Amino acid sequence: MPEFGTRALRERVLRAWNESPARFREDANTEEDFALGGYRDRVVIELAQNAADAALRAPVPGRLRLTLRSSASGSVLTTANTGASLDAAGVEALSTLRASSKRDDAGTAGAAGMAGRFGVGFAAVVAVSDTPSIASGGGGVMWSRSRARELVEGVPALADELERRGGHVPLLRLPFAMDEPPEIPAGFDTVVRLPLREDAVEPVRRQLERAGAALMLALPALESVELDVDGNVRALTAEHRPPGEVVVNGAVWRTAEAHGEIPAALLEDRPVEERARPFWQVRWALPEDGLPEDTPAVVHAPTPSDERLDLPALLIASFPLAPDRRHVAPGPLTDFLVERAAETYVRLLGGLPVSPRVLALVPGPVGAGELDARVRRGIRERLPDAPLLPHRTRGRDAVAVDAPAEFVELLGGEDGVVSGLLPPEWPARSPALAALGVRRVELADVIDELAAVDRAPAWWHRMYGTLAAAATDALGAVPVPLAGASPDAAAGGGVRIVRGPRGLLIADGVDPGGLDVLGLRFVHPDAVHPLLARLGAVEAGPRAVLADAAVRAAVEESFDAEDPDAIAEAVLGLIAAARLDPGDEPWLAELALPDDDGDLYPAGELLLPESPLRALMADDAPFGVVDAELLERWGAETLTAAGVLDGFALAKGEDVNLTGLAAEAETLELDDEDLWAEDVLRRIGPQDLPPLVPEFLAVRDLELVDDSAGALRVLAQPPWRAAIVDPVHVALHDGRRVAVPSYTAWWLSRHRVLDGRRPGEFRLSGDEALAGLYDVAPAGFDERLLLALGVRTSLADLLDEPEGAQELLDRLGDPGRSVTRAQLGGLWTALADTPPDMAIDPPDHVRTVVDGGVEVVDAADALVLDAPDVLPLLQGQPLVIAAQGRDERLAELLDLPLAGEEIPGVVQSEGEKRPVPDAVRAVLPDAPADYLAHERLVVDGQDVPWWTRDGEVHASGVNGLARALAWSAGRWADRLMVEAVLRTPDALPDLLAEADLEPWPSPREL
């Protein structure tokens, strides 16, 4: 088994490192620079390059197989190639950075294009593998980072450097002979095996996937490349056909090549290795079908560099590379090769068939980078002298006239008016022609007079083409053929001719055939030309045609038309082409269409056979079922866009004028739309200008529903749901927008659509203040929908509604409702706290407190309690009671008398004036100075505990005195505290301390 001199190589390297640790550091850094810098993502291309070089040296046809296998134990990239086997010199080259074994192959490199020129490409394997190996020539060699590290650790002089590098050592400097090299597949001479590091698998996979035609063109020594990625096999083949043609996987590439010996003066600044190989080569490859998408837009030198080249051909040239192996090195040699590349590209163009396609290959002036710009500049300098135009005319000898084709043909005909005139297929305004040096002549006067002729529409189209660049002021009366048959078929070639295109329609995405029944005048499709639009014809797509006033008039009059079916056919065709959504054009609902009995109905009064509305609408609803044949011909989508109903119809509008809607000056054909508009106007208040609804959406035909429950279930789903839950935004003249309930939500809130009742008769669970007055909303609908419908949420929200207070009063007066004693006071207090301008109608019945119980009584029998001192005189009297201070407002709202005004209130006992104890003032700072103490306080013949209505404080006993003082001081809530102080003055400190423990009101309550 050959050793390839690996032992001697290792000994020399280790000895050199031992004698000079700096050399060790230099080798490690250099290998890292190549592997992680210039060659970091080049392992596939570098292995292919080595295979091509081996094929050249043999010489044999180059074949390469790259195989990637992934498994749980790891991934391995294996390459097998034909060609010269590895020898000791090759192993030494692979293990000696910057030293190539190819320097003796100079003749081969110049003649056949050997790719490898630096001897370091194999360093790319370091970026992906820690244990690369090669089997060739009956033996094998491998490199191992772990074995290399063991050897380095045995050199004491390298200990410090090894520690600084974290144990990292150069991989390729220490080769090892293999006792059992990898097996070489039959038909191949060499195998390279690379166990991949985990982080390298995907980059290598991507490199294999990107390998394409550029690889075969850059390495012509390779005739075939097989790429096997985990069993997915792809093959690249290259067939070189003389002269200048290469077929890669069936795709034909045109090539032009130049090569020669580099003048010595150009190599003076290049490394010795390059000076020993003084040959240059330039090759351009142009695909017949354009560059494949995966072709890197870079210069290949000869393998891909990082120099951008945005030209439609592949450039492969022996440009000198900078140390990073990524960019072309500047200098005289590069300048020389740029010129050769420019010459060769022009020669490539000259070898192509004469065709305007060559213009796409003329480079523009702006390059993707400096090198690209220099190559472009060199090409463009040579193009004017290149015979690339018809009759192999040079660009500087040619002329292009910017005129219609017929005029160009005339000018370049037998008379030869313009020498060197290019045919019309060569676009006169092409920047590429200017780059070729072609002189362009502008058209000064091409039209003198146009005679009216009678021809087929296609002829008119060609004629318009001759006038496309002409001045339009002389063409206003140009004849135009119309779509549809002429009334006199014998005249005008069977078409009707009119003078002047202004006002005519040009079909854009519609078939004008049959549209003349709508009163429209279309240019005949065969005659349509952009010139007509310049002269006043209107390009009209389906939506634009539908918007034409003639179409709307035809729809409105379709019931009285001579042929309603023809109108329906034309309109439905436009709707289908326009792909309208239901409700986009509400007026289409007036189109006359047949029902299943053949009777004509407005489209908006027809239902699809499977429409859920058939089960929801009332028996007398004015709906028919659309004709089955019509449905089969046009489909449900087109018919519903015309207004035929599948579900509820949606009304859509823009900038709806609420004032006009309320005054019935405008209409959307919606039930009670004027009342909704009036309600919205009341909500937003008076405005200087009419408020508008920029985007309006509503559900139609709600008034025709018989099954409200079923309808609501349908409406709760898209697309109708949005018309309920999304509020309408009203735009005001000052720029503000106000959100109000939508029309649909408003309409539903006023009708018995929820369990047979209006939604406002229900409440959401939560606020118990409305318990008993409103039932909890039935299940089955989400909260957002219920809120939009007007289901009550809270007492506060109810009273914020314009009619909320009135509704609450009416429900309080309903004896069928249940309200607890604890609720009632809060409800009357909330009503009393409504704004002063709140207008309500006094109720006929009110809910009162009678001797501690709750009763609904006639309003005429009720009094509003204005002070608690009269309670002993009101036994059995129905009382309306709110919190202190609300009595007058509540009496005003309810139009009820105050209780104190309905009794005489005469004090009939004598009292003794006494001072109010000082201790009381700690609780009631505003307490009166004295009071009248009665042993028995009699008012209107009855004993009462206290009385304050005559301006004096009368009291009988501690209990009465405490209440009299608290009421007089406006501190009714403190009456029990005052009573405790009066009974036990010495306990005042403790009582105050206890009071401090009671919750304080929040700052908002204060």
- What number is the mean pLDDT? 86
Arrangement of strands in the largest sheet: 5-4-3-6-2-1-7-8-9-10-11-14
Q: What is the C-alpha radius of gyration, as a whole number of Å?
A: 50 Å
Terminal CA distance = 102 Å
The geometry reads as: flat
Q: Counting H and I runs of at least 4 residues, what is the number of helices? A: 34
- Bin the helical content: 25-40%
Percentage of β-strand residues: 15-25%
Q: How many strands?
A: 40
Descriptive overview:
It is built from 34 helices and 40 strands. The protein is flat. 31% of the residues lie in helices and 19% in strands. It is of the alpha+beta class. A hairpin with a 2-residue loop joins strand 3 and strand 4. Strands 5-4-3-6-2-1-7-8-9-10-11-14 form a 12-stranded mixed beta sheet, with helices on both faces. Strands 35-36-40-39 form a 4-stranded mixed beta sheet. A two-stranded antiparallel ribbon has the order 12-13. Helix 11 crosses helix 12 (370-382).
Structure summary:
With 1006 residues, the protein is an alpha+beta fold.
Blueprint of the fold:
Blueprint: H1 6-19, H2 21-38, H3 43-57, E1 62-71, E2 74-81, H4 88-94, H5 106-112, E3 133-136, E4 139-143, H6 145-153, H7 159-164, E5 175-177, E6 190-196, H8 201-210, H9 213-218, E7 222-229, E8 232-241, E9 245-248, E10 251-261, H10 272-275, E11 279-287, E12 298-300, E13 304-308, E14 314-317, H11 332-350, H12 370-382, E15 399-402, H13 405-411, H14 431-435, E16 439-442, H15 457-466, E17 479-485, E18 495-499, E19 505-507, H16 530-534, E20 538-540, H17 542-546, H18 549-556, H19 564-578, E21 592-594, E22 600-602, E23 606-607, H20 613-616, E24 624-625, H21 628-641, E25 650-657, H22 658-662, H23 673-684, E26 692-699, H24 708-715, H25 721-725, E27 728-731, E28 737-740, H26 743-749, E29 762-763, E30 775-776, H27 783-789, H28 795-800, H29 804-812, H30 821-832, E31 845-850, E32 853-858, E33 863-864, E34 879-880, H31 887-894, E35 912-915, E36 930-933, E37 938-939, E38 942-943, E39 946-947, E40 954-955, H32 957-968, H33 975-983, H34 988-996
Parallel strand pairs: 1-7, 15-16, 19-20, 23-24, 29-30, 33-34, 36-40
Antiparallel strand pairs: 1-2, 2-6, 3-4, 3-6, 4-5, 7-8, 8-9, 9-10, 10-11, 11-14, 12-13, 17-18, 21-22, 25-26, 27-28, 31-32, 35-36, 37-38, 39-40
Helix pairs in contact: 1-2, 11-12, 19-21, 30-31, 32-33
